[in-house]
Design a protein that fits this description.
Number of helices: 5
Distance between the termini: 40 Å
Order of helices and strands: HHHHH
CATH architecture: Up-down Bundle
Shape: elongated
Number of domains: 1
CATH topology: Four Helix Bundle (Hemerythrin (Met), subunit A)
CATH superfamily: nmb1532 protein domain like
Strand content: under 5%
Helix content: over 70%
CATH class: Mainly Alpha
Radius of gyration: 17 Å
Largest sheet: none
Structural class: mainly alpha
Length: 165
């Protein structure tokens, strides 16, 4: 199913976060991870985008989805995942990440995003009317007004490198 235009701002932010997860995974596989640099980038993306994103979902999208009995359990799971991810963002802020925790973080964030995209968004689009989706879009626009609207560029230590580098 094509993504409803009212959910596209969240999907764009999901793409930004997934790009971070891919870079973390590939850097770890290459054995050239700068954990401190990734922690700084993780904090930046949380402060400029993901913090607003979580709040927008929790205040606008999740309440609309919870009205449907078939989505109550999924919304509860996603809410718990937000809490776990917030704790991990806090750990990155205090410099507690190591390579293992960085790997776990990327896996949890990636899995969470895919669950929202493949399960929550798909179901919501099928259950809500066009008018309800438009109201969600307006609510999201307001909730995301202070979020960064472009993908953050990786710093020198966290960008992917070609084989020649």
């Amino acid at each position: 199913m094509l993504r409803d235009k009212n959910l596209i701002p969240l999907s764009h932010q999901h793409q930004h976060a997934l790009a971070l997860c891919v870079r973390i995974d590939r850097t770890i596989q290459a054995g050239q991870v700068d954990v401190a640099a990734f922690q700084a980038e993780i904090q930046q993306i949380f402060q400029q985008e993901i913090g607003f994103h979580f709040e927008a979902e929790e205040k606008v999208l999740f309440p609309a989805a919870e009205r449907f009995s078939e989505l109550k359990v999924l919304v509860a799971e996603l809410t718990v995942e937000h809490a776990v991810l917030r704790e991990m963002f806090d750990l990155s802020r205090t410099g507690e990440f190591d390579t293992a925790l960085l790997t776990k973080f990327a896996g949890l964030l990636s899995t969470h995003i895919r669950k929202e995209e493949r399960q929550l968004f798909e179901h919501v689009q099928g259950l809500l009317t066009k008018e309800e989706m438009a109201a969600i879009g307006e609510g999201l626009q307001g909730a995301l007004a202070n979020a960064n609207q472009s993908c953050l560029l990786p710093n020198e230590s966290t960008r992917l490198r070609g084989k020649a580098e």
